[in-house]
Amino acid sequence: MKKILVGIIIVGILGIGIYFLIGQSGTDENLTYKGENENWKVEYTVNNVGKEEIQRFIDLKYQGSDISSIGEFQFSVQTKLGKWGQSVIELDESGLYTSSGSTILKGNLTEKDKPVFTISWNDNEEEIILENK
Questions:
Q1: 132: CB partners within 8 A, 6+ apart
Q2: CB-count exposure of residue 122 (10 Å: 0-12, 13-18, 19+)
Q3: Residue whose C-alpha is closest to residue 103's, from 126, 131, 82
Q4: CA Rg, the chain, in Å?
Q5: Which single residue of 2, 36, 58, 79 has CA 20 to 30 Å from 95?
């Protein structure tokens, strides 16, 4: 009886360990999506943390010649997991904008995903399809 009880406890501990290993393995992954056009260059990096948390980073660069003409702008990123964005933001004097944050979402992004980055400023709006690079 004592051997059976010890066996059950060992199997239970091993089962719990395997559950946590399989449940988290392979989900921590950094992906970088890039895209550009004549006005903007975008780098969107996501870190899938576990199965439900995503850390995200945006690096945006204005590639035009007149940075002062941009003023306040807004952007959004559409993925299969939803849409997020920021508004009432400005470029620095070098024409750069960076942002980071994290959120809880159900699911993860993959290398095959192609987020759509939309940026609006003054009376202009442009979409850039980002690809994993």
A1: 31, 32, 33, 111, 112, 113
A2: exposed
A3: 82
A4: 22
A5: 79
77 exposure class (CB count in 10 Å sphere: 0-12, 13-18, 19+): buried
- Measured CA to CA in angstroms, residue 89 lies from 26, 86, 109, 128 at distances of 35, 7, 26, 19
pLDDT in tens, the chain (133 residues): 666 654 566 645 555 545 444 444 445 678 999 999 999 999 999 998 877 788 899 999 999 989 999 999 999 999 998 899 999 999 999 999 999 988 887 778 889 999 999 999 999 999 999 999 8
- Which position has the token pair 């939309």? 118
CA distance linking residue 85 with residue 79, whole number of Å: 11
Helices (H) and strands (E) in the chain, counts: 1, 9
